[in-house]
Amino acid sequence: MDTCQRLITIRFSELKDAARLMELDHLVWDRNTAPEPLNWESREHYLLHCPPGSQLVAVTDSEEIAGYLGFRPPTGLDSSAHVYELWIAVDPAFQRQGIGSRLMHAFQKAARQEGKSKLRLRVLSSNPRAIAFYRSCGFKEEGRLVREYCVQGRYLDDILMSCFLSD
Length: 167
Description:
One of its GO terms (molecular function) is acyltransferase activity, transferring groups other than amino-acyl groups. This protein is of the alpha+beta class. It has helices at residues 18-28, 43-49, 99-113, 128-136, and strands at residues 8-12, 55-60, 65-72, 83-90, 118-124, 140-151, 154-164. It has a single domain, classed as Gcn5-related N-acetyltransferase (GNAT) (Aminopeptidase), CATH 3.40.630. Helices cover 25% and strands 34% of the residues. The chain has a seven-stranded mixed beta sheet with strand order 1-2-3-4-5-7-6, sandwiched between helices. The mean pLDDT is 93.
């Protein structure tokens, strides 16, 4: 079956997903998409920072995790309980097939049902495809930390984007 027509199931992450999610982090988060590559010291270290249920995963009909959307409260303060911070990663072999959009749509619906009213994220200025994707999902630039990172001798802005959820 063509990957564009595969059945994709969206569900919360489970303990059994940890190895594949760590692999996705290694595939996706590099010097073009993050200030530094993301490498986990161990499975335990990963699970400490990304416990089961803290991501939505996109699973193909052949049981392969094609991507995920991670989320967490931005602070421990009650005054920001209406907000989720998020990040999204799709395996390069599955990109541009609508999986990111499916994850984002499912997460926006779930966050709205939970009573959240704002989603926020950060993206590097060197990642125009991600910026365009987030804009297509309703995110707008809310701020910019100019020359926040120096990656391989090049200064990059850290763009802060948000999406307000409406009923």
